[in-house]
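FYI - complex with 4'-deoxy-4'-aminopyridoxal-5'-phosphate, inputs then prediction.
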Amino acid sequence: MTPYYNDHTIVFLNGQFVKATDAKIDLYSQSFHYGYSVFEGIRSYKTASGQTRIFKAIEHFDRLERSARALNMPYTWARQELIDATYELLSKNGLSDAYIRPVIYAPANMSFTKNAESFVVIETWEMKPFLGDKLLRVMTSSFQRPNPQAFRIQAKATGHYVNSILASQEAKACGFDEALLLDINGFVAEGPGANVFYEKDGKIFTPAVGNILPGITRATVLEICEEIGIPATQSLFTSDELKNADAAFYCGTAAEVIGWERLDDTVFPKPWDETVSKVIQDAYKHKVIEKEYTYSLQTS
Ligand code: PMP
């Protein structure tokens, strides 16, 4: 059995709750053959008050719709309908701290034509932070992020993830934990499944949008910086600038906020516990469970 489901697992498939082991999708789907589908990666948490809450549910389901429309896929679901279905799915699977994966996929179609309808499946399982909880050893990838003129790069489309898989596998084969991809102009873009930030002199920097998936966690980190008064800049920068940083981290729904030990041969000099990045990491951990937090920017 996979770590994702067992004989009792329920999925939401086109309006019905069915067993994962009974669910079927069409082998002639354009999605399966050409990587033409869109998806979301969402987390729910058991909050400080004991409730199960989907973090940033509206933002995720709105992005799902925008991604589908960006790829010319018909989209017929109301946001609240899918949010309600997801809560019901979590309850049917007895899950509270969970990872949630909705996918919008295409019907049988071996040509490249537009379809008259789309389908939806929502799956959920328990998942630890996907990049682990230790500081990461990151390798600059030999793969670039896709040319934004070739794809709708701001959409979370499955086909883009072939690039992510290649980069991540290459980094692991070279003994690193994860890859960092540059954009087609050589500026730092993002990780295979996370956005990147660096810290210099108590300030935070992240690549501007244009060549990246504008992450919901990235937006949350910027929100936290605003709330607690950390100056944050969105701009293009090179990996040399990044290597000159005091600290760096990846962030994403699955990864949450996770610091870096090194990029290639460059070890980040500031002890993680003394960085403002760590303050952001703690704030994020509190935010997702709706717990009040106090913070101190008294870093040396
Ligand atoms: N970039 C890529 C390529 C991703 O796959 C993800 C994960 N969805 C992110 C960034 C982070 O996005 P989010 O914070 O919305 O999960």
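The first helix runs from residue 30 to 34. The chain has seven helices and 16 strands.
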